[in-house]
Design a protein that fits this description.
Elements (H helix, E strand, L loop, with lengths): L10 H6 L2 E3 L4 E7 L1 H5 L10 E2 L5 E6 L2 E6 L4 H12 L4 E5 L5 E5 L4 H6 L16 E6 L2 E8 L2 E6 L1 H15 L1
Antiparallel strand pairs: 1-7, 2-5, 2-6, 3-4, 4-5, 7-10, 8-9, 9-10
Length: 171
């Protein structure tokens, strides 16, 4: 049996939106003391993200982060995190199947997202290194702003709905 991503059948729609699905990313939910993870380079300011270290580190709450890595790295990444966090209270859970990820790359991506998202996505308030849990239409999403792209993390059951809303906004 071959694995099939949540949006594999929507590649043409995504292409028209200047977007791509990034299938099967490793996603690890981490709970730990902020001081402990800050020493490891995790962002501790609300709604911030760090990337470029081989992992994307997204702040989700006062003691909660999402660690995103390349596909197939869940076991190795979890083991590395467990080793780094040993000795303190922590939790590392593989949640890779919990969210589909699409990446919007077009210049008008913020306007598309603003069509159904309550966040202020203007550059004065939103830019590289930011992340936030919010809604897109009725779908709970996690947004991450990277250099020249916005990632949208969404439950697989809502992924098609999100693409449909983006298509409507683009029309």
């Amino acid at each position: 049996m071959t694995a099939r991503s949540a949006l594999a059948h929507r590649a043409t729609d995504l292409e028209r939106l200047e977007a791509v699905e990034i299938p099967f990313l490793t996603q690890l939910a981490v709970r730990a003391e902020p001081a402990t993870v800050a020493a490891l380079g995790f962002p501790v300011d609300p709604n911030t993200a760090a990337y470029g270290t081989g992992w994307d580190l997204l702040w989700l709450g006062p003691d909660e982060w999402l660690v995103v890595a390349d596909p197939g790295n869940a076991v190795a990444s979890a083991a590395a995190l467990e080793g780094s966090l040993a000795g303190g209270h922590h939790s590392v859970v593989d949640v890779s199947a919990n969210r589909a990820v699409l990446e919007l790359r077009g210049a008008g991506r913020h306007e598309l997202l603003a069509s159904a998202c309550p966040l202020d996505l203007h550059r004065r308030a939103w830019g590289e290194g930011r992340c936030a849990q919010t809604l897109f239409g009725a779908a709970p999403v996690l947004l991450q702003e990277r250099l020249g792209a916005t990632r949208v993390f969404v439950r697989p059951s809502f992924a098609g709905y999100v693409v449909d809303l983006l298509r409507s906004a683009a029309a």
